[in-house]
């Protein structure tokens, strides 16, 4: 790694009548900072279309414009300075990077044509790749040239599971008793016990990887916030989680955006549509052990089953949300911002999951064999890709943003409260 060192004189940071936010971009609680630029990090952020931090001259328009930036140490002004100086360690431990919802109010009002929203988006991507485990897999799966490998791994693993399903079923004592005549049954070729075991195992691995990444991220935020002095814990962890959950459900911060207020609609559709699909999936998986499942709630569902209707509505909502996001990125790039493979891969994978799901449903009701089985296999490959690469894709931003919001709520930052120079309580 190439580095260069520079000492920032203390008197240059405290003179000239600069506002506190200008000084806070550099100082550690009023002390001078020794800057060691990480040039590799600067390049990584720059190649993601976020090189506009070089245009920043610290006027403060972005921080003043942002409707959700706290009053104390507001973002994204300080983050723009840190990015220019290559202060990777500080940026990857900064919860404010995740409080930004990339509405691009700041980017559309920058007098120099800088794009703070895109800079913070690039830093969030670097954070996910940095905290992911194993890290090499995160880098590998986020390169466009490895798309065949990205889809090939799920296809091969699923193909092997189906190839040995009869042997595994016999060894484990499972028997296929459901016939082809039952509505929407794929049990003869894709038995539930096999799919539940297969997806359950790999989903557990993905979940463990996400948890490990979040633990590392939380510890880094706790240690990194010492830049401002030790923060005092103002809320319990449970109260912070509840408060953050309310903000996520209401999409409170999205509704405050002005430059891209249409994003709130797209995110509403995606979020609640995905929640509906997840609820139906969990209901199906737990069907054999769930004591409250009766009659029309028993899988396989009829077309007019409440759960079937919910799944279709959820799928339509996700498709609509994906379409709005894709349309915005393709037709309104100045406001939508720069998109990388990291962004496109998640969006297109989610779109493909739902689209192939509807194709599978239609082909099944039309009794088109083997077309419906082929479509279902492709659908399962995309579902597997969405789940197994969760710790390394933009999908993970849901969890990292939630963790950062909980942390900010816990120290009073989300409520614009001062959080520096006070003793931290034991965690």
Short description:
The protein is mainly alpha-helical and 427 residues long. The chain contains 20 helices and two strands. It has two domains: 126 residues, Fumarate Reductase Iron-sulfur Protein, Chain B, domain 2 (Orthogonal Bundle), CATH 1.10.1060; 276 residues, no CATH class.
What does the model show?
- This protein is an all-alpha fold and 427 residues long.
- It has two domains: 6-131, Orthogonal Bundle (Fumarate Reductase Iron-sulfur Protein, Chain B, domain 2), CATH 1.10.1060; 135-410, no CATH class.
- 59% of the residues lie in helices and 1% in strands.
- The chain has 20 helices and two strands.
- Strands 1-2 form a two-stranded antiparallel sheet.
- Helix 3 crosses helix 9 (116-131) and helix 11 (147-163) crosses helix 19 (371-388).
Defining traits:
427 residues, Fumarate Reductase Iron-sulfur Protein, Chain B, domain 2, two-stranded antiparallel sheet, single chain, mainly alpha, disordered N terminus, 1% strand, 2 domains
Break the fold down into its secondary structure elements and pairings:
Layout: E1 6-7, H1 10-14, H2 20-24, E2 34-35, H3 39-50, H4 61-65, H5 77-84, H6 88-91, H7 96-99, H8 105-109, H9 116-131, H10 135-141, H11 147-163, H12 165-172, H13 192-224, H14 237-250, H15 262-285, H16 306-331, H17 333-336, H18 341-365, H19 371-388, H20 397-410
Antiparallel strand pairs: 1-2
Helix pairs in contact: 3-9, 11-19, 13-20, 14-20, 15-16, 16-18, 18-19
